Amino acid sequence: MNDQDIYARFNELTGIDFLRELIARGDASPMGATMNLKVIEAGDGLAVVQGIPDARFYNTMRRMHGGFAASLIDTGLGCAVMTKLGKGVGYGTVELKVSFVRKIDVETGPLFCTGTVLHAGRTMLTAEAKVADKAGVLYAHGSGTFLVYPK
User: 66, 92, 119, 131: which could join 140 in a potential S-S bond, CB 3.0 to 4.6 Å?
Assistant: First the structure.
């Protein structure tokens, strides 16, 4: 299935079903492909996104630019929020908070962002996320507020 097929069917799928199709395809979104991100798990109010650090995202200090972790967190939060949405309902980030606790570089290896919905209202949702390696070592964490877009 190509990108056009799944996005053309967005209005027919609940948020969680849309994510599960992305997982089956092995990707996240066009942005996800650019940033080495992919959704690997989606449940009710929960999503896990894998991010693989790449030297293309280094800053001048030869470490991952903060935008890499911020994108990973925003994606994890957004996907968790999406699991709570009905058919054809969209969302957008209106606030994002990111805390970096450890340097990230290519040697860090794959990171996993677990996003969890804290509040799912009719028009606004809030969520939190943690970014850790496969051993569970924390690299960043964050939270966000999301606006529901009407059908």
Answer: 131
Q: Please report the beta strands in 6-79, taking only residues with DSSP state E, as ranges in sequence order.
A: 37-43, 46-51
Among the listed residues 97, 88, 75, the one whose alpha carbon sits nearest the alpha carbon of residue 27: 75
Whether the predicted model's global pTM rises above the 0.85 cut: yes
Q: Which of 120, 127, 116 is nearest to 93 (CA)?
A: 127
Q: Cβ–Cβ contacts within 10 Å for residue 19, how many?
A: 22
Quote the percentage of the chain above a pLDDT of 70.
95
Alpha-carbon gap, residue 83 to 27, rounded angstroms: 16
Q: Which of 30, 53, 38, 67 is nearest to 111 (CA)?
A: 53
- pLDDT tens digit string along 32-59? 889 999 999 999 999 999 999 999 999 9
